[in-house]
Amino acid sequence: MRKKGIYGILASLLMMAFLIYGCGDDDKPPGPGPEPPTDPDSTFSELTVTLDEMIEAMATDPETPLDNFDFSALNQAFKNYESAYPGHDMASFGAAITSLLMLTTSEDLNALIDTIIAMDEAGMLKICVPNPEKMSGRGNFFAFPTEITATGVEPNFLAQSYVALMARAISNPPQFSEVQAIVRNEFLPAVAEAIRYINKIDPDFVFWVTPDMMGETSDSVEIDNSDFLAFGAGLSVIEAFLHMAVAYDIDIPSYDSAGLAYMFDQSNDWMSLHGDGGAQMSSARNSFLAAIIKADNALNSLEDEQLTDLNQSDDLIKASWTPSEYVLAHDALDSVVTYMSGPQTVYADFDGDGFDESVRIDASEIFNDPIDGIFSYLPPYSSEVTREYDSLYYYDWYWDEFVLYDVREYFVVNITWNADTFAGWVFPDPSFNGLLPDINSDTELKNLFGLTPDMWTKEMRIELPD
């Protein structure tokens, strides 16, 4: 049970890489493209042997760990071959896939995943873990025992809670910055390299995946330009989210009430941009736009296929939409580009009066001039985080008494505004850094969202499930 959820997708990509290197029978449709050189010592010949060995190992034992394979060497060999023989589409695709599969053997990534798995198995990722098997007894509670001595919870549950508390106390959970470092140093370069090589594949390149290659008895499947464009679009979307994931400082000192208090403290740096955060958000926008272009081209390719290839039964992505459906899909992509390019008018019931209002929103500012420290855009306040409990009882008719069967635990964030009046409760930047370009005053912002003196209170309580 080792990282199957994370590596399953990469394993699927590996099988695609296997498929494109001609491991089927000679009487099956071959994968077109430049023929490899006849030199018996060529890199491509060595790669085919390596791939055959990998396929045999995985076919013999599907549980074979992916880290048994040297994807790094294989990736470099593919890149060397593509460099020596530009235009070799199969080598480009192999370089793209293996650049992603190299992540499965990353020591830092594996160590991080092992830590997260260990924390989960030790129950450190949850504070309150109800046990259905003990719901009928006097209670069920796994949390901090020093705070619940008056709740009537049985001693055996307190003992279990104490063990859980000690486990949390001695744990050293990873910080978000550690995850971000892996994304920066390994994930982003791998995805960028995969995109670069996918982009090199010629639009006319087609490969047939035979039943023998898939280990099935189904018909052959065609992988063509539409499929490669869709794959590239998906990678660009992933790249965009990875850029966004490393743009902000989201470290907290601990994964408990103290960490939550740190998040809400306006004087801290939580959700502030890293030094290169602005550049990362700008790169995210570029990746999103690249994905849209590829998706649009994939739609065009599918439309052409539908006119020139009436039999779509053997295609990986089947061109089967109606003309109006293609138009809707193109329009949706165009709309995303429009909203990411500048201010657009949006209609919605912002103030809750039952009628729509209009306001211009400039979503491009999320990427061009991103907000730095989200809580700093709120009126000044102080905050306190507490842990609270609700005891849940049922009435036992036989014993004629209420019996505690569970305790609900949750965090409460108590916000106290510095202002003593609604008039003094002022948003420092009502446009939220240009996100609302036409909102120039605190009054305009409050009117837009229906914030009135009669609904304002100096203190605000936010309950967060634990």
Task: Describe this structure as you would to a colleague.
Helix 1 packs antiparallel against helix 4, helix 3 (71-84) packs antiparallel against helix 4 (89-101) and helix 9 (225-245) packs antiparallel against helix 11. The longest helix has 32 residues, at 277-308. 24% of the residues are buried. The chain has a 3-stranded antiparallel β-sheet with strand order 7-8-9. The protein has a two-stranded antiparallel sheet with strand order 1-2. A two-stranded antiparallel sheet has the order 3-4. By secondary structure, the chain is an alpha+beta fold. Mean pLDDT is 76; it is low at 1-41 and 126-171. It has helices at residues 4-19, 43-60, 71-84, 89-101, 107-121, 155-170, 176-198, 211-214, 225-245, 257-264, 277-308, 323-339, 365-368, 442-448; strands at 207-209, 221-223, 248-249, 272-273, 344-348, 357-361, 381-396, 401-417, 459-465.
